[in-house]
Amino acid sequence: RRPPPGAPQPRKGGAPRLPRRLCAGGRGLAPRRAGDLAIKACRLELNVKNKDRWCHEIQIMKKLDHPNVVKAFEVPKELDFLVNNVPLLAMQYCSRGDLRKLLNSPENCCGLKESQVLSLLNDVGSGIRYLHENRIIHRDLKPENIVLQDENGKIIHKIIDLGYAKDLDQGSLCTSFVGTLQYLAPELFDNKPYTASVDFWKIYFCMKDPKFIFAWEEMTGEVRFSAHLPNPHSLCSIIVEVMESWLQLMLDWDPQQRGGGTDPETGCARCFQLMDQILGLKIVHVLNMTSARILSLALHPEESVHSLQSRIESETGTSAGSQELLLEMGICLDPRKPASQCVIDGVRSWDSCMVYLFDKSKTIYDGPFASRSLSDCVNYIVQDSEIQLPILQLRKIWAEAVHYVIGLKEDYSRLFQGQRAAMLSLLRYNANLTKMKNNMVSASQQLKAKLKFFHQSISLDLERYSDQMTYGISSEKMLKAWKEMEEKALQCEQTGDIGFLDEQIVALHTEIVELQRSPHARRQGDLMENLEQRAIELYKRLKPRAPDHSYSDSTEMVKIIAQTVQSQDWVLKELFRHLSKLLGCKQKIIDLLPKIEVALNKIKEADNSVMQMQGKRQREIWHLLKIACVRICSVMDACVPVLCQHINGFLPSAPFTSKDEPHCVPELWQCTHTQHSRPLAPVLQLELECPHFSSVVLRQLLKILGRRAFSV
User: Fold this and answer.
1) What is the rounded CA–CA span in Å between residue 386 and residue 171?
2) Helix 681-689 vs helix 665-672: crossing angle, to nearest 10
3) Which parts of 19-178 fold into alpha helices (H)?
4) 645-650 long-range contacts, Cβ below 8 Å, gap at least 24?
5) 140 labelled catalytic
6) What's the confidence (pLDDT) of residue 244?
7) Which bin fits 300, alpha (ψ -120 to 50), beta or left (φ > 0)?
8) How many Cβ atoms sit within 10 Å of the Cβ of residue 39?
9) Lowest-confidence region among 336-345, 348-357, 676-685
10) In the 8-state DSSP scheme, what is residue 707?
């Protein structure tokens, strides 16, 4: 049919011109980019059989929907045309390249990092399981057919190229010889019937002996086999052990035994069950900062922090009581929570998550520290850097040398991260110290204010007491108690003096600020990173050289190794010196905290004492007032006749007749003769109602009565 506008225009002979964004791929045409879609076209020279296979791939792709299998989409209208009578295939575009590109990276010349290995195992295993559950065998699983995509900051692996896939619904007996030669399962060479286990063989391919999973060639040319993973690698001991068992299961020569068969209870291949167990392992990786060694421990279900510390003690010799386990942000493990708190969900490897072990009984870390050992091959060229070796052998040796240089830099990076965790922990302690200091200063200031008020009030009370002693109430016992209170208040002032502690805290704050500003508080690995890049570039230049009859020495690579070792020695020396200062400051804070707590408690006790003394003195004053009132009343009852005589002596013989004055004499006289009347009432009434009456006389009478009352 005629292609729509914008579609590739046909050339002479009827073959359409492909868009420039499409480039040649394996059996089809792989995309560069078309928005978020990858457009794949069948090669024009493919025969009828391969064209049928192409159409079959499109058919399979359209019915698959899994996060680890590349997804097919409808072809955009502007590209929806036939190329050589077959349709185009639109797929999800994966921008991070394929697994082969990742494996060929010099940084991965000795294998992927543990986090990458586990992520790859999870994604590819999940994708293959999905295909098998849908009765589809891929038959051409290889690094080139596994692509990488960044989704929300996480790398996802996806299986592509199902052109050789076999749909078992078309017949369970498979005998066709298809796939990539280097990754074919053994039964395919013999043209024997095969099952889904051919995909197990291809997940991790290597040259196979019935009991071995790895083969390599010695420098002497001898080929050797091993049941263990090759060294060096980037896997912890726990993962190595389970991965070796899993690979032996996956690479079994016998297709009936490969993958472990099927579990009769679940109907699932045992290899997938073992894979789930591997991925479900909760492994805590502990970096011992006193020795620079990494300890990997598989956690038991619901294991406690105390149990973890006991296991660490048996491995490192550091007692559980002296252990301080810090997370990356300087937070200590909570002993009330399970030990799995240090394992982050979705992060399974030591190159991504680490717990840092510090010995609280030490403040100076001076070694000895574990150093990364050279492999036999690298040690061989270090001993004689000028020896001429074949390029083919040098590739392997230099790959291990690059891995060694990268490892030295990563060792420093992990130790620096441990130092950073110690700094963050110190800052947390310092924040707690500052908080307690502020509480102490606030309490001290409140105490000083209360003491000032107490001194002023007791001084006034003593002064007024002295003034009234000659004609008022006196108590030697009370006076002695008040003077004792005054002396005790002086002692409380000494308790509130926190100047000596404040000076220590200020000096410690200054020391911590200097440590934060120190250049050793920041990464010092620039030189090591430069050396790493030099080693990688040297390896890159060697890799494309023709291996036939070519020899070279390793002088430049050995120089880089030596410089990296020297650089690491220097930065680690400064790192541990700085770390020792951090731990010294932290210990000073630990020593200061109980002193501040004691001082704060003493200040609170002194504050309570001052308040109690103030309350006691006020109660005594009110008690004196009560006694005075009672005595006045009793004296007045006894002196009523005398009072009345004094009053009658001043009263006129006849009632007032003035229009302006009230007639009060009968009422006053009546009050003086009433037995239960209050004695002062008539006097006060007289003072109010008869202002012309001499108030001087009344005040003189009250003074006489008061003296009599307080002298009783």
Assistant:
1) 61
2) 170
3) 48-62, 99-103, 114-133
4) 646/697, 646/701, 647/672, 647/682, 647/683, 647/686, 647/701, 648/672, 650/693, 650/694, 650/697
5) yes
6) 92
7) beta
8) 25
9) 676-685
10) H
Q: How far is CA 87 from CA 43, 75, 402, 587, in A?
A: 11, 9, 46, 73
The band of 524, judged by pLDDT with boundaries at 50, 70 and 90, is confident
User: For the chain, what is the total number of helices (H) and then of strands (E)?
Assistant: 18, 17
Beta bridge partners of 216: 224
For the chain, what is the largest distance between any 2 Cα atoms, rounded to a whole number of angstroms? 157
Beta bridge partners of 89: 40
CA 696/CA 429 separation, integer angstroms: 75
Structure tokens at 164: 């050789």
Would you put residue 474 in left (φ > 0), alpha (ψ -120 to 50) or beta? beta
Distance of CA 30 to the CA centre of its chain: 43
**Stretch among 118-127, 638-647, 657-666 having the lowest mean pLDDT:** 657-666
AA letter at 568: Q
Q: Return d(Cα 144, Cα 549) in angstroms, integer.
A: 30
- 232 preceded by a cis bond (ω within 30 of 0): yes
Helix axes 499-517, 555-638, angle to 10 degrees: 160
Q: Is 121 exposed, middle or buried (0-12, 13-18, 19+ CB in 10 A)?
A: buried
Distance, CA of 443 to CA of 610 (rounded, Å): 13
State how far the Cα of 2 lies from the Cα of 4, in Å rounded to an integer: 6
Q: At what angle do helices 640-650 and 665-672 cross, to 10 degrees?
A: 160
Q: What is the DSSP letter of 70?
A: P
Q: What is the pLDDT of residue 170?
A: 44
The DSSP H or E segment spanning 564 is helix 555-638
Average pLDDT over residues 422-437: 95
Query: Rounded to whole angstroms, how far apart are CA atoms 78 and 66?
Result: 27
DSSP for 494-522 reads: HHT--HHHHHHHHHHHHHHHHHHHSGGGS
**What's the whole-number mean pLDDT along residues 119-142?**
90
> Measuring CA to CA, which residue among 383, 372, 299 is closest to residue 342?
299
The single-letter code of the amino acid at 348 is: R
Q: 536-593: per-residue pLDDT in tens?
A: 999 999 988 877 768 899 999 999 999 999 999 999 999 999 999 999 999 999 999 9
CB environment 217-243: b (16+ within 10 A), e (fewer): eeeeeeeeeeeebeebbbbbebbbebb
Q: Which two tokens stand for residue 249?
A: 């299961």
User: If DSSP codes are grouped into helix, strand and coil, which group holds residue 386?
Assistant: coil
For 170, which DSSP code? G
**Separation of alpha carbons 688 and 227, rounded Å:** 121
Distances in Å between the alpha carbon of 568 and those of 7, 358, 369, 414? Answer: 59, 21, 12, 12
DSSP 8-class letter at 411 = H
Is the pTM here over 0.85, yes or no?
no
**Looking at 98, 123, 140, 411, which residue is catalytic?**
140
Q: Give how far the C-alpha of residue 677 lies from the chain's centroid of Cα atoms, to the nearest Å.
A: 84
Confirm if 53 and 140 have CB atoms less than 8 A apart. no
Q: How far is CA 512 from the centre of its chain?
A: 22
How many angstroms from the chain centroid is the CA of residue 116?
22
- Within 8 A by CB and 6+ apart from 261, the residues are 269, 270
Could you say which DSSP state residue 7 is in?
A: S
The neighbour count for residue 479, using CB atoms within 10 Å, is: 14
Question: What is the chain's Cα-based Rg?
Answer: 48
